[in-house]
């Protein structure tokens, strides 16, 4: 098994730190994220190490809670997306025919909706909240992933090793599970990281437009949205969550790239 | 209510003259273009018919083109506008003497027929404002320039109610011969006429050349840009593409600190936030008045004002704080009780582990207010779940069904210009919009009606105090804090006039006085 | 001075030694066949001539001289100049070697320079149909595509053409035509040819000299008919005896016994020793040095004792 | 002839997609809580007023009748009347389309002009194992900064400090092209940051895929310079996935435009749809989404054609391999 | 000309099989007969060589023989019966070694796993069979832990041969299975095929355009040309006295 490269390992370490951060919030470290602990809009200082927000709440536990909310929400959403896309993409790609046509048409319909409009509609229909945010992210990320998984599955299905497995008498689940899936896994992993960043962005966008997670719960999107209106008066409100968000997405992407390079060992060639 | 405040309130906004946050500099030349930005366009299926307008943003817009017989001054005194003067021969009779030099913007002179016709049209309409005018018995003209209104019974807020846009004088001749549809066309006696409008993008007004007041309006053109995103309005102020903008964030002053020529002022208003507790839902958690009283006690209005509104609001009773004659919120029965009383009341009602959902819309500062409420009530062992929706979803939930399905909801009332006016909304049969969640209280209704008849003075204040106390005990709609309006303008581009306190949510009330220093 | 001279070249891929001290000389105008089992390092050696190795390849030692210039020590621009002046390459996958998005004529023109007569060059590889120049590679048959590739490689009349199994992907009928074209063109231009192939009979028929590779080294090198007719290295002997086409019907061929080596570092002795019937003790521990047997140069401790 | 068949096939599947979108958006809009009546008429509206409004916009009929009627009028080019402005939706959309189109086109242009060279460069310089830490971080950074953050930041900074570009003062293109461009540059830049990253990445992947092709090795073997190989062999062969990506990016940009328009207060289609959703202005939401879907579908047809031209093996008109 | 039916019991019979491909957009489909009235049979224990130029329909014939493709018309019988509805019933009884060395192995599976797969499908224990099979095809035990991209083209094809042989099937299709191998390995594989055939008695359809290789392993030879079988004959007869004019031309090129 090849190891991830150093950059990806760094990204993984960042993600781990964030997860620990989020878990710490669950354990109550950093304090109650909803409690009003001090004066409004105070810069970082003892008692509120990342400053206080416009309701006099300490930002530290809020950022910690926000990381947890956002990571959890987007990860679950991406897992759902990956599961759905992999299932439909692989079956459509392998089977072809009318099934393929139907899946692709449905995907295209979803695809034709601008993601954020889709998210707004979902949030409006389901009522804002975590479920809506989750469903929005899933619906926003499914089309692209399904498409790419299907394309990859079509190519893989024509490979001789798949035919050989079929000749050996392997049943459909085995053919799809052992031969097609692992060979589109790279696509899924790469798209998954892409979807994860899209998910975080969609969550943020929804919060930005007022459809995100419910107060007083913090998510990175909510914090950044609120913080954005205090950019000058209280820059620490956006700085903390903003840095964390960028680091999180960056780390996810770096890990995704590394994962892809590992899953799809590619030879490179120099042009000189 | 109880609790400790974490930060002293910042106190009233500095005034430049009694009752004024800013006074336009008459020495400056008139003319020029005034660029404004507001957060929302007025948009209603009923169109621009002033009589049907029921939200402050629409009133504000229509006030540029329409005028009423009387208006309110900086101290909420009623002042002449289209009526030069008036007499009240008896508590039920009002005789208005109209200005003779007033024309509609199409050039036609305004007559007593327009005034009478407007009254009759309003009284025959479905307008909510009918209720605010009291019981009008008759409207007659007495010559071309005199109009007499007779009430069935004395009604003290009558003149204050006449000062708002729904009571504007409409061009009745044109409306009657159908040459003008007030739903789509703005044709009034006001300082400006519409030149262009793109829904949700912009309005352009130009001065009404036929305007009766000499030297007004000062600015030739008014561009109103609709910018829903606060950051965009802040940006426009900073780079000078807007000379004045309304802001939603109570901390905007900090945001604009250091942006050289921008001045941020907070206009106090009589509007106030209130909490609705739905007693009509099946198995309502709030059926027992003790539960509602406990909530009223546990709420810390001062903390809400200080934290959620950054010290810019004031605790209010049913009569809006800031209006002459309003009752003192500190004197309310719930204000003198403490958390332990609230807990005791809950225990008596058997509702120790009360949990309920508070439905709010996502526009700031509603979420901030809701979160402070949540913290307040937690002190009394009440768990509040906040459910945040877009405004449409929220109004569907709150007003869409009868009986309504929500537990509790947060909203605000425009406080108007007389302390008795808004108290009417505590009578659901009269208000209409709250029949779905509010159970009528006969005693309270009787007190409200009684206060309406009482002429101004100590007796009225007593009657109003009784209303306040009764509403406080009823606690189906619990007044919280007044709702400040934040206005920012560029001192290098504009010299505006602004009241310190506004009753009808009209930031643009004095825009005809505003002097443009330089045009962008 | 020979045109190509590979001296003790060592090439490692991550974890695998592909060349373990290979030596090869190609003189001007010479046709040299490079044969050997799969994995013996033919392609690696062929690519090393033009420094065309894939990224993971590392040179562990030795050198490659083309027209006297050390290929691995030249700056990038120098290598490019060397390739343009002296070298041509033809690869195994005929259609893949052509840019799929460009018409054949355009590709040739790109190599030949503006204003060159594409058709002349196509005719030289016996593609007379004018439609060929207007076709896209995927519209050609494998044989046609390979002839286009040959035309492109030979367009600049290189001094050395390295052909890495140019006919492996083609039908037996088409093979001959393509080879005929390659050899005819090379003869006309006086180009030396390094032909990597599995087809021993064809190599014997067409080449002047042949080099046999095993375990990353050239184990025998000499005139083609001599090497393949009277091998001096046990491996060559085994290889020559195992072409199916040579067998009479019903006869059983004996392939080289055992498995080809997989080297991770330098071979301690002779890489063939584990499979060699003649292997002596020192064959396992002592790397053989070249010895001359008849006209052949052989890497074998017991070279003299082989009888084909 | 073959082309004709291809077109009819595409037209059919596009129509199916549009139909699907129409059903979905129609259903979604009607499922949204908060009736049009409370929203459009306000809390004080009486039952009669609500009923009258419903009758006026045909909202009292059974849903499938409404759908059928809507579909019929849309097919006739009539997108209905906005409940808020009481103006035809089609005209308003048309008036707003240029803003969004300009924004998206600028953003696409930026992403291609910046993303493709970046991608090529990082691919050609890539080390074994993915490499190019700087390039990876850079392209990762682009996708990490959501446009609402970047947008707010840019709006703030550029309005606070005179940096030569205006924000919050949009001018129609027809009125003053130069000033219009000056006000559009920043929103387009914000919008394109994500797209640049994705383009760069896709380009890098595509180029790396091409780099190992035998014809590239052949070109290297002929002694061609890297720049020559990139220009003549790599760009076109790597173009197909990048061009295909543009379809995705368009869809993405339409969504992103919505937020950017909101932040920069540009009167485009995106902000129109957001406001309409907020007010349950059914006709506008339906028409807006249908328009976005239509643009997206047309864009993809164009891209398919383009890819066919770029890679003759995939082309509609290409002959079969025999 | 149609295929003769030898006296021995046939494992596979193609009876007047035609395969027509349709391609292209609707309404303007191109019809192409990849196989035209082909009749062939492979007796138990026999190796049938199938030769012909590129595109003559060899691979299509193999796909039909493997039950991967349903013929447009005509009948296919395996072991005397038509193909069962569920492939599973034939699991382990037929295998194939396919044309493309690059894609013949799942790049995500180690060599050992690939070779063991047909056993796993059958639920049979693996034991030392994998190592043994790898040894048979001339690969060290250590190869079991490698991934396909770590192998040369020849090594890869040996692995897929090991995989095909591991269940000791009744019938194996070799579609250009040795074309990509170097001669010495070719002989190894061909010998292996012959040895294992002698040992286990499987039948084989051996497809190649290399007449030398076919001659080495096949008992009978069928020649295809543009979808039709033009000649079927015993190997000895064929190489000494080809009947069809096309066969004669093929032999000349050898
Ligand atoms: N890119 C690579 N990475 C790792 N090992 C490689 C790579 N390419 C080749 N090898 C190994 O290097 C050795 C020599 O390979 P090479 O391709 O030169 O052999 P060859 O003689 O050309 O074989 P064939 O006849 O199969 O083409 C083999 O053991 C092979 O496994
Ligand atoms: N799925 C398919 N759809 C359409 N045509 C096909 C399909 N598969 C094969 N063909 C066509 O059928 C004919 C026979 O193809 P087949 O692959 O059987 O030939 P072959 O003899 O195996 O050739 P090769 O030696 O190149 O492998 C060819 O013309 C091919 O283009
Ligand atoms: Mg090779
Ligand atoms: Mg074939």
TrEMBL record, chain A:
Lipid bilayer topology: Multi-pass membrane protein
Entry superkingdom: Bacteria
Domain ABC transmembrane type-1: 67-256
Pfam families for this protein: BPD_transp_1
Entry GO terms, CC: plasma membrane
One GO process term, biological-process aspect: transmembrane transport
Subcellular location: Cell membrane
Keywords: Cell membrane, Membrane, Transmembrane, Transmembrane helix, Transport
TM regions (residue ranges): 71-94, 106-125, 131-149, 236-256
PANTHER family: OLIGOPEPTIDE TRANSPORT SYSTEM PERMEASE PROTEIN APPC (PTHR43386), PEPTIDE ABC TRANSPORTER PERMEASE PROTEIN (PTHR43386:SF25)
Protein name (Swiss-Prot/TrEMBL): ABC transporter permease
Origin organism lineage: Bacteria, Bacillati, Actinomycetota, Actinomycetes, Streptosporangiales
UniProtKB/TrEMBL annotation, chain C:
One GO CC term on file: plasma membrane
SUPFAM superfamilies in the cross-refs: P-loop containing nucleoside triphosphate hydrolases (SSF52540)
GO molecular function terms listed in the Swiss-Prot or TrEMBL record: ATP binding; ATP hydrolysis activity
SMART domains: AAA
Top-rank lineage group of the source organism: Bacteria
Annotated localization: Cell membrane
Primary subcellular site in the record, as a coarse category: membrane
Domain ABC transporter positions: 4-240
Keyword Mitochondrion among record annotations: no
Keywords tagged on the record: ATP-binding, Cell inner membrane, Cell membrane, Membrane, Nucleotide-binding, Translocase, Transport
Record GO biological process: peptide transport
Membrane topology: Peripheral membrane protein
Family statement: Belongs to the ABC transporter superfamily.
Protein name, UniProt field: ABC transporter ATP-binding protein
Species annotation: Nonomuraea deserti
Automatic annotation (TrEMBL), chain D:
Major location category of this protein: membrane
ABC transmembrane type-1 domain span: 97-307
Classification via InterPro entries: BPD_transp_1_N (IPR045621), MetI-like (IPR000515), MetI-like_sf (IPR035906)
Gene3D superfamilies the UniProt entry points to: MetI-like
Keyword terms: Cell membrane, Membrane, Transmembrane, Transmembrane helix, Transport
Short name of one Pfam family: BPD_transp_1_N
CDD domains linked: TM_PBP2 (cd06261)
Membrane topology summary: Multi-pass membrane protein
GO molecular function: dipeptide transmembrane transporter activity
CC terms in the record's Gene Ontology section: plasma membrane
Domain of life the protein comes from: Bacteria
Cellular location(s): Cell membrane
Transmembrane segments: 103-124, 136-161, 181-200, 238-264, 284-310
Stored PROSITE patterns: ABC_TM1
UniProt keyword Transport present: yes
Family: Belongs to the binding-protein-dependent transport system permease family.
Protein name: ABC transporter permease
UniProtKB/TrEMBL annotation, chain E:
Domain ABC transporter, residue spans: 12-251
Gene Ontology MF annotations: ATP binding; ATP hydrolysis activity
A Pfam family matched in the record: ABC_tran
Organism domain of life: Bacteria
UniProt cross-references to PROSITE patterns, sorted A to Z: ABC_TRANSPORTER_1 (PS00211), ABC_TRANSPORTER_2 (PS50893)
Keywords: ATP-binding, Nucleotide-binding, Transport
Family: Belongs to the ABC transporter superfamily.
Protein name: ABC transporter ATP-binding protein
Lineage: Bacteria, Bacillati, Actinomycetota, Actinomycetes, Streptosporangiales
């Amino acid at each position: 098994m090849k190891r991830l490269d150093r950059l990806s390992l760094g990204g993984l370490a960042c993600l781990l730190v964030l997860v620990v951060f989020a878990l710490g919030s669950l354990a109550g470290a950093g304090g109650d994220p909803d409690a009003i602990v001090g004066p409004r809009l105070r810069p970082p200082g003892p008692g509120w190490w990342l400053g206080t927000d416009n309701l006099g709440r300490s930002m530290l536990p809020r950022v910690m809670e926000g990381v947890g909310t956002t990571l959890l929400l987007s990860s679950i959403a991406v897992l759902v997306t990956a599961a759905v896309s992999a299932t439909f993409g692989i079956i459509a790609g392998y089977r072809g025919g009318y099934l393929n046509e139907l899946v692709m048409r449905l995907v295209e319909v979803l695809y034709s909706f601008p993601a954020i409009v889709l998210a707004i509609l979902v949030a409006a229909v389901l009522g804002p909240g975590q479920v809506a945010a989750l469903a929005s992210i899933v619906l926003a990320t499914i089309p692209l992933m399904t498409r790419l998984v299907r394309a990859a599955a079509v190519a893989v299905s024509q490979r001789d090793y798949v035919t050989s497995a079929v000749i050996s008498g392997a049943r459909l689940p085995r053919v799809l599970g052992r031969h097609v899936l692992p060979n589109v896994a790279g696509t899924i992993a790469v798209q998954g990281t892409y979807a994860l960043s899209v998910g975080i962005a969609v969550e943020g966008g929804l919060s930005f437009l007022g459809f995100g997670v419910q107060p007083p719960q913090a998510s990175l999107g909510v914090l950044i949205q609120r913080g954005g209106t205090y950019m000058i008066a209280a820059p620490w409100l956006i700085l903390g969550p903003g840095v964390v968000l960028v680091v999180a997405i960056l780390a996810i992407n770096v890990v995704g790239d590394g994962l892809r390079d590992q899953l799809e060992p590619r030879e490179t060639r120099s042009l000189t | 209510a109880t609790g400790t405040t974490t930060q002293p309130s910042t106190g009233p906004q500095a005034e430049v003259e009694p009752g004024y946050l800013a006074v336009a500099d008459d020495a400056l030349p008139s003319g020029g273009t005034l660029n404004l930005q507001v957060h929302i366009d007025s948009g209603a299926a009923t169109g621009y018919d002033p009589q049907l307008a029921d939200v402050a943003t629409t009133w504000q817009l229509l006030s540029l083109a329409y005028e009423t017989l009387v208006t309110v001054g900086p101290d909420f005194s009623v002042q002449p506008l289209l009526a030069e003067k008036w007499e009240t021969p008896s508590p039920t009779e009002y005789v208005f003497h109209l200005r003779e030099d007033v024309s509609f913007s199409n050039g036609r002179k305004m007559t007593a027929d327009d005034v009478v016709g407007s009254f009759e049209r309003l009284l025959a309409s479905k307008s909510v404002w009918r209720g605010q005018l009291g019981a009008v018995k008759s409207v007659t003209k007495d010559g071309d320039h005199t109009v007499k209104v007779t009430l069935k019974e004395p009604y003290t807020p009558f003149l204050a109610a006449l000062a708002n846009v729904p009571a504007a004088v409409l061009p009745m001749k044109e409306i009657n011969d159908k040459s003008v549809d007030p739903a789509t066309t703005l044709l009034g006696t006001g300082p400006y006429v519409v030149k262009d409008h793109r829904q949700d993008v912009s309005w352009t007004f130009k001065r009404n050349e036929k305007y009766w007041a000499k030297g007004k309006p000062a600015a030739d053109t008014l561009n109103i840009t609709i910018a829903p995103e606060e950051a965009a309005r802040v940006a426009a102020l900073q780079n000078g593409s807007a000379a004045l903008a309304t802001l939603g964030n109570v901390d905007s002053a900090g945001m604009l600190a250091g942006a050289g020529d921008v001045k941020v002022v907070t206009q106090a208003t009589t509007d106030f936030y209130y909490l609705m507790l739905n007693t009509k839902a099946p198995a309502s958690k709030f059926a027992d008045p003790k539960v509602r009283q406990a909530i009223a006690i546990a709420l810390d209005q001062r903390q809400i004002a200080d934290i959620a509104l950054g010290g810019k609001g004031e605790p209010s009773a049913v009569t809006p704080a800031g209006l002459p004659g309003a009752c003192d919120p500190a004197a309310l029965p719930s204000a003198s009780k403490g958390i332990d009383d609230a807990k005791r009341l809950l225990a008596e009602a058997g509702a120790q582990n009360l949990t309920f959902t508070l439905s709010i819309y996502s526009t700031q500062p509603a979420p901030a207010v809701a979160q402070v409420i949540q913290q307040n009530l937690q002190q009394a062992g009440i768990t509040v779940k906040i459910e945040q929706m877009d405004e449409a979803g929220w109004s569907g939930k709150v007003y869409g069904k009868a009986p309504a399905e929500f537990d509790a909801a947060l909203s605000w009332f425009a406080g108007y210009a007389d302390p008795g006016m808004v108290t009417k909304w505590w009578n659901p049969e009269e208000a209409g919009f709250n029949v779905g969640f509010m159970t009528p209280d006969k005693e309270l209704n009787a007190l409200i009606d009684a206060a309406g008849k009482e002429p101004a003075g100590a007796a009225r204040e007593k009657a109003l105090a009784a209303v306040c106390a009764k509403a406080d005990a009823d606690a189906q709609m619990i007044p919280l804090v007044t709702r400040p309006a934040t206005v920012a303008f560029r001192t290098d581009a504009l010299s505006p006039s602004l009241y310190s306190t506004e009753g009808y949510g009209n930031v643009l009330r004095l825009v005809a006085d505003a002097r443009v220093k330089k045009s962008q | 001075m020979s045109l190509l001279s590979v001296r003790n070249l060592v090439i490692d891929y991550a974890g695998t030694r592909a060349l373990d001290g290979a030596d090869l000389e190609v003189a001007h105008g010479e046709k040299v066949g490079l044969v050997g089992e799969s994995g013996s390092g033919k392609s690696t050696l062929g690519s090393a001539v033009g420094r065309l190795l894939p990224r993971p390849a590392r040179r562990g030692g030795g050198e490659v001289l083309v027209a006297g210039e050390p290929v691995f020590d030249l700056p990038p621009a120098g290598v490019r100049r060397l390739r343009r002046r002296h070298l041509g390459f033809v690869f195994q996958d005929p259609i893949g070697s052509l840019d799929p998005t460009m018409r054949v004529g355009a590709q040739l023109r790109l190599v030949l320079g503006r204003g060159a007569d594409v058709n002349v060059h196509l005719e030289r590889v016996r593609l007379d149909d004018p439609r060929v120049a207007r076709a896209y590679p995927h519209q050609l048959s494998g044989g046609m595509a390979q002839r286009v590739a040959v035309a492109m490689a030979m367009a600049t009349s290189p001094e050395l053409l390295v052909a890495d199994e140019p006919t492996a992907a083609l039908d037996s009928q088409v093979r001959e035509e393509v080879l005929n074209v390659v050899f005819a063109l090379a003869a006309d231009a006086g180009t030396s040819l390094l032909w990597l192939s599995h087809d021993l009979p064809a190599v014997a028929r067409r080449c002047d000299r042949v080099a046999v590779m095993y375990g990353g080294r050239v184990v025998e090198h000499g005139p083609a008919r001599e090497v393949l007719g009277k091998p001096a290295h046990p491996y060559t002997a085994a290889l020559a005896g195992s072409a199916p086409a040579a067998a009479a019907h019903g006869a059983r061929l004996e392939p080289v016994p055992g498995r080809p080596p997989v080297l991770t570092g330098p071979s301690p002795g002779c890489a063939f020793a584990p499979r060699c019937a003649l292997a002596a003790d020192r064959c396992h521990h002592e790397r053989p040095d070249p010895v001359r047997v008849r006209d052949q140069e052989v890497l074998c401790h017991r070279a003299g004792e082989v009888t084909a | 002839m073959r082309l004709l068949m291809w077109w009819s096939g595409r037209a059919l599947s596009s129509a199916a997609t549009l139909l699907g979108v129409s059903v979905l958006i129609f259903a979604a809009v009607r499922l949204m809580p908060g009736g049009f009546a409370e929203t459009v008429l306000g809390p004080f509206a009486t039952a009669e007023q609500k009923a009258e409004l419903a009758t006026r916009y045909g909202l009292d009929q059974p849903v499938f009748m409404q759908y059928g009627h809507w579909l019929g009028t849309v097919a006739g080019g009539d997108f209905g009347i906005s409940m808020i402005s009481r103006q035809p939706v089609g005209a308003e959309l048309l008036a707003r389309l240029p803003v969004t189109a300009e924004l998206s086109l600028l953003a696409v242009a930026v992403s291609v002009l910046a993303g493709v060279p970046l991608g090529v460069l990082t691919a050609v310089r890539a080390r074994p194992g993915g490499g190019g830490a700087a390039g990876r971080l850079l392209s990762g950074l682009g996708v990490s900064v959501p446009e609402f953050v970047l947008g707010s930041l840019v709006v703030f900074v550029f309005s606070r400090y005179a940096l030569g570009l205006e924000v919050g003062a949009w001018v129609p293109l027809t009125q003053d092209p130069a000033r219009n461009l000056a006000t559009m540059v920043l929103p387009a830049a914000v919008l394109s940051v994500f797209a640049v990253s994705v383009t760069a990445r896709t380009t890098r992947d595509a180029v790396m895929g091409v780099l190992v092709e035998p014809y590239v090795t052949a070109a290297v073997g002929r002694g061609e310079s890297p720049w020559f190989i990139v220009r003549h062999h790599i760009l076109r062969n790597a173009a197909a996935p990048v061009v295909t990506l543009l379809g995705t990016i368009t869809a993405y940009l339409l969504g992103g435009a919505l937020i950017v328009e909101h932040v920069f207060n540009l009167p485009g289609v995106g902000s129109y749809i957001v406001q309409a959703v907020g007010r349950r202005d059914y006709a506008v939401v339906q028409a807006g989404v249908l328009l976005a879907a239509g643009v997206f579908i047309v864009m993809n047809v164009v891209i398919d054609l383009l890819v066919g031209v770029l890679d003759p093996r995939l082309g509609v008109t290409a002959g079969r391999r025999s | 000309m149609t295929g003769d039916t030898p006296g021995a019991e046939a494992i596979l019979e193609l009876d007047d099989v035609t395969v027509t491909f349709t391609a292209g957009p609707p309404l303007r489909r191109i019809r192409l007969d990849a196989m035209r009235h082909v009749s062939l049979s492979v007796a138990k224990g026999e190796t049938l060589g199938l030769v012909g130029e590129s595109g003559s329909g060899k691979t299509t014939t193999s796909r039909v023989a493997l039950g991967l493709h349903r013929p447009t018309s005509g009948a296919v019988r395996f072991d005397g019966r038509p193909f069962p509805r569920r492939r599973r019933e034939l699991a382990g009884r037929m295998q194939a070694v396919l044309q493309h060395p690059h894609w013949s192995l799942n790049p995500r599976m180690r060599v050992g796993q690939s070779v063991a797969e047909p056993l796993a499908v059958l639920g049979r224990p693996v034991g030392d069979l994998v190592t043994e099979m790898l040894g048979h095809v001339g690969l060290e035990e250590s190869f079991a832990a490698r991934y396909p991209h770590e192998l040369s083209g020849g090594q890869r094809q040996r692995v897929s041969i090991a995989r095909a042989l591991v269940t000791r099937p009744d019938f194996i299709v070799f579609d250009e299975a040795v074309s990509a191998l170097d001669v010495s390995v070719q002989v190894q594989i061909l010998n292996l095929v012959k040895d294992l055939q002698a040992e286990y008695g499987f039948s084989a359809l051996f497809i190649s355009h290399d007449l030398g290789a076919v001659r080495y392993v096949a008992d009978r030879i069928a020649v295809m040309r543009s979808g039709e079988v033009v000649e079927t004959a015993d190997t000895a007869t064929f190489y000494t006295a080809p009947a069809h004019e096309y066969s004669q031309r093929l032999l000349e090129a050898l």
